[in-house]
Structure formats: C-alpha cells, structure tokens
Amino acid sequence: KNLKRIFSLALAGTMLAGMLTVGASAADFTDDEKIVNQNAVDTMVALNIINGKDDGSFDPEAVVTRAEMAKIICVMLNGGNDPTLGSASSAMFSDINGHWARSYIEYCASMNIIAGQGDGTFAPDAPVTGAAAAKMLLVAMGYDSSIFEFPGADWEINVNRRANEAKLYEEIKNIDTSVGLSRDNTAQMAYNALE
Q1: Helices 66-77/2-22 angle, 10° precision
Q2: Which long-range contacts (CB under 8 A, 24 or more apart) does 53-60 make?
Q3: pLDDT in tens, 128-157
Q4: pLDDT tens, residue by residue, 96-106
C-alpha cells in the first residue's frame, strides 16, 4: 500500500519536474491578480489536481473543505487523474451518505489518510485547517500516523513539526494552521508535497 503511494507521488513528482523544465504556461483566470502562489497554482491546475471555478476564476481566497481536500489527495495519488472509486455498502461516516465526495472520502479513509471527527461524522463541508491538510498530505506521502503520533491530544503539534521538516509550509506566508486553508495556500502545500 505504501509502495503504491510512493510510486504515485514519484510519478506526480516526475510530471512536476518535467513541467518545470519545459515551463508551465500560466493558467488564465479572471482573478489572476489575487493569486499569491502563482507557480504552485499554475502547476496544480496543469496537473489537474486543483481546478478553477466554472465562472473562469480560481477564487484563491476561498477556503477548501474537508471533502475537497479528500478529492485533491485522491487525484494527486492517481497521477492527476480522477481515480475509479467505489463506496462501502453503508457510509463510513454518518454525514457523507449522498454527498458528492463520499467515494473520495471513503477512499482516503480506507488508506488511513483521513479520519472522522470522533463521533462517527466526517464534517465534509467544514473547512480543512492547515494542520489537517498537512496531516492528510503527510500520510499520503507515507508517514505512518501512529508512528509519528498524529492521532491524540497533541496531534497538531506533531503534524506541524513534521510538516515543517517536510517543507510543506514553505512559501506560505503567515499561515495559521488552526484555521481554514485557502485554495491558494492549498495549491502551494500540494505543490510542496510533490516536490
């Protein structure tokens, strides 16, 4: 299972390196001037990991939900393609039945990349915090939650320590990891994970 994750991330890293060599053409969004992490956004859009909005904007300041983060990670692990997913016969979390991201959430949960709220729910439409996004990316990168002490009372401290070591927060200015992560910063964090 970890080998598959490492292979998928290596493939994405190879794609990223190739794009950096050739030079990614900048995505053309109606709100380009608001994007701070332009290179990361352009790369994640080119790799089909994060997409723009239907109205032609990127909406860089919008906060990513927990469900959207699950989809981002699924696509990252599948080399920029939307993976073929299935759903459990009964929903793994009581609040995801009928949700558009149910299969993405269950895919990530089955790989221990994400966890619920401790009460049987997942809160798919709640904002994903910087620390929660970092934890998901770290586990997707092969960090074992139990070895690195990601669950438990001090999970955020442990995640932030490992995320700093892995340079997941690099280039993200003034990040408060306890609040919702913007689309702009999510692109940068995902970009950092691939690097």
Answers
A1: 80
A2: 55/30, 56/29, 56/30, 57/29, 57/30, 57/31, 58/27, 58/29, 58/31, 58/32, 58/34, 58/183, 58/184, 59/31, 59/183, 60/31, 60/34, 60/35, 60/36, 60/182, 60/183, 60/184
A3: 999 999 999 999 999 988 888 888 889 999
A4: 999 999 999 99
User: Helices (DSSP H) in 2-65: which residue ranges?
Assistant: 2-22, 38-46
What residues contact residue 128 under an 8 Å CB cut-off, 6+ apart? 63, 64, 65, 66, 68, 69, 136, 180, 181, 186
Residue 184 Cα distances to 23, 60, 166, angstroms: 20, 5, 19
Q: Which of 149, 139, 131 is nearest to 77 (CA)?
A: 139
> 114: buried, middle or exposed (CB in 10 Å: 19+, 13-18, 0-12)?
buried
Write down the mean pLDDT value for the chain. Answer: 87
Give the count of beta carbons closer than 10 Å to the beta carbon of residue 107. 23
pTM confidence score: 0.85
